[in-house]
Amino acid sequence: MIYFDNSATTKPDSGALDTYRTVAEQFFGNPSSLHKLGDKAKAVVEQSREQIAELIHAKPNEIYFTSGGTEGDNWIIKGTAMAKRMFGKHIITTTIEHPAVRNTMAQLEDLGFDVTYLPVDSRGFINPDDLKAAMRDDTILVSIMAVNNEVGSIQPLDKVADILQDYPTVHFHVDAVQSVGKGVMDLIRNPRIDFLTFSGHKFHALRGTGFIYAKQGRRIEPLMAGGGQEKDWRSGTENTAGIAAMAKALRLALTDEDKKVAREQAIRKEITEYVESFDHTVIFSKLTPDFAPHILTMAITGVRGETIVHAFENEGVYMSTTSACSSRSGQESSTLAAMNVDGSIAESAFRVSLDEDNTMAEAEQFKQAFKNVYAGFMRMRA
Amino acid sequence: MKYSEIMVRYGELSTKGRNRKAFIGRLNGNVAKTLHDFPELTIRPKRDRLHIELNDLPYEPIMDRLSHVFGIQSFSPSIKVEKDMDKVREAALELMDRTAPKGVTFKVQTKRSDKTFELDTNGMNLALGDYMFDKRPDLTAQMKHPDVTLRVEIRREAIFLSTETVKGAGGLPVGTAGKAAMMLSGGIDSPVAAYLALKRGVDIEMVHFFSPPYTSDNALNKAKELTAKLTPYGGRIDFIAVPFAHIQEEIKAKVPEGYLMTVQRRLMLRLTEAIAHQRGDLAIFNGESVGQVASQTLQSMAAINDVTVMPIVRPVATMDKTEIIEQARKIDTYDLSIMPFEDCCTIFAPPSPKTQPRTDRARHYEQRIDVEGLMAEAMAGLQINSIRPGQEFLNQDQDIIAELL
Hints:
Chain A is globular. Chain A is built from 14 helices and twelve strands. Chain A has helices at residues 14-26, 36-55, 69-83, 99-110, 128-134, 157-164, 185-188, 240-254, 257-276, 305-314, 324-327, 334-338, 343-346, 360-381; strands spanning 2-3, 63-66, 90-94, 114-118, 139-143, 171-175, 195-199, 210-214, 281-283, 295-300, 317-318, 349-353. The model of chain B has no long low-confidence stretch (mean pLDDT 90). Chains A and B meet through helix 1, helix 2 and helix 8 of A and helix 15 of B. Chain A: It holds the Pfam family Aminotran_5.
């Protein structure tokens, strides 16, 4: 079995699972309780927070725990909308955001907010000049993903940050869910960025865990009101074990990051060059440095992406159409549509997404599988 | 290139005359205590300087510890070179290459205690200055306020080179002003008062009142952790925990509410005095600040102070709360102090204590309780620990948790 669907979710790390189990058994107290068990659980949460902050070069008081990427995106966007609505109702985002951002924006539009969607070029990149043109006096938030989940384009956040230097009061949010361990830490830790969203299960932690970075001094309204956990910003009893496992998984993910990135790049290159040598193929994710090392989206023209995914499954290779979240609903890829990819080609798209555990041997097996699948489709065509 | 020693310059000693030796001896002892967990070091006190030979240890953590020790004016990491001019030149260049960035101004400053060395002060300055110009044409000489000073000390055993001088904590070596009992609560003020006492050379031991089961281990551990925060300034500090719950219960039962606080404080002071006598302490220090709370009005202080003739020193008496907080932040005790654990002063605090208690009343109400008996009981239950730099009390699970993360 070859698992090439890591952008959908990663396999939990066994060390992180051990941590989960140990913490759940030995530090099970409620971190808000006054007694010793509560203190111990609280210490786990706070030490995890410190570790995570250190790993992403932030301060502990800038890290807030969430249930994952979707909550983080919803919270930062809606939290900004609520906190800053008296200053304006204009928000800027892109046409290629994850549904967690896109659908949140749609909800805000229903509530009377005005959202500008920046277009992307044929390679999947926004143009910073479009942002400059879209900025208004009543703009309160700019939300742009770091790494696109469907094609892997790394957005020019540094240029966006430069533009936003002139708008110091506008919140700048970056969805960094696909960014951990992919060699883009410098980009997402640009000092102008106010908020970052992270999701645990994208870096071998467990589902239902995540965190946001919120720059000291920036305020958002809480979505979760209740017992006042997380300094009143995010109520709800802390997921102590999940948080600890996430801190560990993050540490492991960022250890030897350069080596892992290089390995993923090599595998991606191997597969790309192989697939390119076939006639009826299209590669959307380029081998240039402005694409993430782990995402490779391509198409075999004339065959539906879903069919391709199943054909590969028969060969023991697991992957997705362009985004796992939308693949069951049968929608075509929103990123490819935004890139002006012809609908008939977009519906043939499929995505290989790697992580550090994938090997060159798997790339070779994939090539063999690809050859078989491709030949099969060509026979049907003939 | 490796630093071979850290050279420590004494502070405020020139005025001490015949007591100088005692001061140096004490400072030497304090430095040794502060660096207790680096047994590889050799510490050699001399008349003008203290030399800490690194013996291959990294110098940064040692420098960090030294920066807190009172009685040190400044210190420099130095390289020891044998008395061979070729070697001196080579080492000086290496040191400058590492510590003097391109294009800065510099001068050479030589001190020669070994008068038999071939070059005199000027000779050495010129020799090294010339050499530096040959090898580092980017540097400019400047005698007044240069960016970098290459210090050269010609001593009997070797020549020492340094370019960096770090300001020390100043003050007097802890212990040179005698020993006192410090009343340490868990609040913001008393750690600052303790710091100021240490700064003037007072060797303090902490007296902390605790009231289990009304107060938690956390409250006690917080006070110990605060103490640990203060140990880098002078070394080990003894921590004396005084059980106070029974006394508080008795007072609560027998003394009118308005005088609860006054009588409690009188008992605390009596106990501290008894401890001071027992342990040879010459004075009592506390964190009282005039007018801050009910127990700190001048009337209150008078009514409380009535039980002793021992000198009571209040280092923060006239500081504003904001000034005290600022100082607490500087010595890194603030975040600990504001941790919300109930302490013995808060659990039986009456809603409206008298701000102008009368001494005669306080005496009168105190007679209702068995002062002698209660004190004897508390004195029998003293818990004494010695607290050293780097010890932790609050996050004892830290290592276990770190393993998991």
